[in-house]
């Protein structure tokens, strides 16, 4: 009888993971991806194309003061020391299981219980996260749990990747461990880390390996020395090679282009499910799209638009939405300018709702748009998740005009809710919208240049298609039926891990 292959052991280091701690999108990834990887093997039919190897993924997370100790009961499982120039620093690992995933919460003096997850003190944060990264490695050594894969996320945990590259060859415990550096946000490289890196015995990279300004920074060092790099979309993996999006590290990315894989994030179907969403008036599926009209009518009413007697006008009047941080990166200004131009150009009826918070000047522009076009526009300047659900479930079109976007989830949520996205063709937006101009199987519309004129032109294309109800419904339906689940992402991560292990004799050494 064939025995089962041994589980694939993955140590996943993250600064955030829902439900324990979430500040931004990293928290969603840190919580959802490990659970999806654990579920892969339990859900896959024997002999199917899905993996048969169980993934024993464990997450290490700093034991922040904000993690509720009464709610999440944990047990001390390891006490270790992290070498430091001022003497070894003690660390403790506390174990608990959340959503089927074992967690190690790492405590120690540098992780102060009163400090926020990210403070304004770059030096303090660097000291904290480097300590956390190294303590997590020592904790699994102490537990004799030998990872096949070390998966580090963003700058906060990149020191572990760098440490591994410096020590792996002389360290029997970690000799076989393969490192993966995942990049969610290239804007934060770990500034303020120069002194903390040295004090944890992590020297700057040799001259010539990185730009001088980056030789001591955790994320560049992690990206230089990891066996493999992951970004959160295939297009972004290519975009990074160019100077406007590479954060000054495009030379490194070009050298490492064969070691970069883009894997799209997923959306959490437990939270985003039009068939079972307590936040929306009427639930629906791709087969009952006609009932979606009731959500639109309810939202128009909620927003104070005057309804027509028959409801026919509502049906034929497109409702355009924007749900986003208000920021130049997100192209909020592009959307506002395009809506002004649309109002000037077209006597056709349309309405728009803008939900967002962010840069004050853009919030003011959005409010001004409502003042200038009171019959057509509502600008709601706040963060309101339930309202975002009602808009996704009601609007006809979502504008996603980002100047750059590593992955982005709004366009995926929109498609899942039958709200047709118009997105700028960049990063993950390009990878997740099947463009009307390119394919007869489209799920949305893309435009190339980050300008109001380009958006307006594509918006006009979309409004023309909107008048053809059958064609529009087909686009909605195809979007709703696409797979944006974390299961799909987990499958791609699994396949990458396996291929890295199969090629482990080609371990990387950039130093
Ligand atoms: P980013 O994380 O860069 O802001 P993403 O597209 O990855 O952009 O994620 C944005 C998420 O935040 C989406 O789920 C979107 O619905 C939500 N969101 C943005 N602004 C608001 C808001 N004002 N109210 C409610 N949800 C919002």
Which keywords apply here?
18% strand, binds adenosine-5'-diphosphate, nine-stranded mixed sheet, 511 residues, 15 strands, alpha/beta
Q: Rough shape? A: elongated
Q: What is the CA–CA distance across the termini?
A: 46 Å
Report Rg: 24 Å
Let me know the largest β-sheet. Answer: 9 strands, mixed
Average pLDDT for all residues = 93
Beta-strand residue percentage: 15-25%
Ions and ligands: adenosine-5'-diphosphate
* Percent range of helical residues: 25-40%
Strand order of the largest sheet: 3-4-5-2-1-6-7-8-9
Uncertain residue ranges: none
Number of alpha- plus pi-helical segments? 17
Total beta strand runs: 15
**Protein structure class:** alpha/beta
Describe the 3D structure:
The protein is an alpha/beta fold and 511 residues long. Helices cover 36% and strands 18% of the residues. The chain is built from 17 helices and 15 strands. The protein has helices at 25-43, 122-142, 158-167, 194-199, 218-225, 234-239, 250-255, 292-302, 312-316, 332-345, 360-372, 385-392, 410-416, 427-432, 452-466, 469-480, 486-502, and strands at residues 8-13, 55-62, 75-82, 89-98, 101-108, 149-153, 178-183, 228-231, 260-262, 319-326, 351-358, 377-380, 397-400, 420-424, 445-447. The strands form 2 sheets. A 9-stranded mixed sheet has the order 3-4-5-2-1-6-7-8-9, sandwiched between helices. Helix 2 (122-142) crosses helix 3 and helix 3 (158-167) packs across helix 5. The radius of gyration is 24 Å and the shape is elongated. The two termini are 46 Å apart. The chain binds adenosine-5'-diphosphate. Residues 24-25, 323-325, 355-357, 383-385, 388, 408-410, 413 line the site of adenosine-5'-diphosphate. Adenosine-5'-diphosphate (ADP) is lined by residues 24-25, 323-325, 355-357, 383-385, 388, 408-410, 413.
């Amino acid at each position: 009888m064939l025995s089962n292959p041994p589980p694939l052991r993955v140590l996943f280091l993250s600064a955030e993971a829902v439900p324990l701690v979430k500040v931004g999108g990293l928290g969603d990834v840190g919580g959802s991806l490990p659970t999806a990887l654990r579920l892969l093997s339990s859900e896959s039919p024997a002999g199917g194309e899905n993996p048969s190897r169980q993934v024993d993924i464990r997450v290490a997370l700093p034991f922040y003061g904000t993690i509720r100790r009464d709610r999440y009961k944990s047990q001390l499982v390891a006490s270790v020391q992290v070498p430091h120039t001022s003497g070894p620093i003690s660390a403790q690992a506390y174990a608990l299981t959340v959503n089927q995933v074992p967690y190690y919460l790492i405590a120690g003096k540098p992780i102060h219980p009163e400090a926020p997850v990210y403070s304004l003190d770059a030096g303090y944060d660097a000291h904290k996260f480097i300590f956390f990264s190294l303590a997590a490695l020592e904790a699994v050594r102490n537990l004799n749990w030998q990872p096949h894969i070390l998966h580090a996320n963003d700058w906060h945990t990149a020191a572990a990747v760098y440490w591994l590259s410096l020590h792996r060859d002389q360290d029997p415990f970690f000799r076989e461990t393969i490192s993966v550096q995942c990049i969610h946000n290239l804007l934060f490289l770990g500034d303020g880390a120069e002194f903390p890196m040295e004090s944890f015995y992590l020297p700057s990279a040799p001259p010539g390996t990185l730009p001088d300004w980056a030789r001591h920074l955790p994320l560049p060092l992690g990206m230089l020395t990891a066996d493999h790099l992951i970004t959160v979309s295939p297009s972004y993996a290519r975009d990074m090679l160019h100077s406007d999006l590479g954060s000054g590290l495009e030379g490194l990315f070009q050298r490492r282009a064969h070691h970069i894989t883009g894997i799209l994030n997923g959306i959490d179907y437990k939270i985003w499910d039009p068939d079972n969403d307590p936040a929306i008036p009427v639930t629906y599926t791709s087969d009952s799209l006609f009932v979606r009209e009731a959500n639109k009518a309810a939202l128009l009413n909620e927003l104070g638009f005057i309804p027509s007697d028959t409801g026919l006008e509502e049906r034929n009047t497109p409702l355009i939405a924007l749900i986003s941080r208000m920021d130049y990166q997100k192209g909020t200004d592009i959307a506002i300018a395009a809506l002004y131009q649309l109002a000037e150009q077209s006597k056709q009826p349309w309405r728009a709702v803008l939900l967002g918070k962010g840069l004050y000047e853009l919030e003011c522009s959005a409010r001004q748009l409502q003042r200038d076009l009171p019959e057509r526009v509502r600008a709601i300047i706040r963060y309101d998740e339930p309202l975002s659900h009602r808009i996704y479930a009601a609007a006809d079109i979502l504008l996603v005009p980002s100047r750059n976007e590593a992955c982005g989830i709004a366009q995926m949520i929109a498609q899942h809710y039958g709200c047709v996205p118009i997105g700028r063709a960049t990063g993950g937006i390009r990878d997740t919208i099947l463009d009307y101009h390119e394919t007869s199987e489209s799920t949305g519309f893309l435009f190339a240049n980050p300008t109001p004129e380009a958006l307006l032109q594509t918006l006009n294309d979309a409004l023309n298609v909107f008048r053809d109800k059958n064609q529009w419904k087909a686009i909605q339906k195809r979007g709703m039926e696409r797979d944006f689940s974390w299961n799909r992402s987990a499958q791609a991560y699994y396949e990458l891990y396996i291929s890295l292990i199969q090629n482990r004799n080609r371990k990387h050494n950039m130093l």
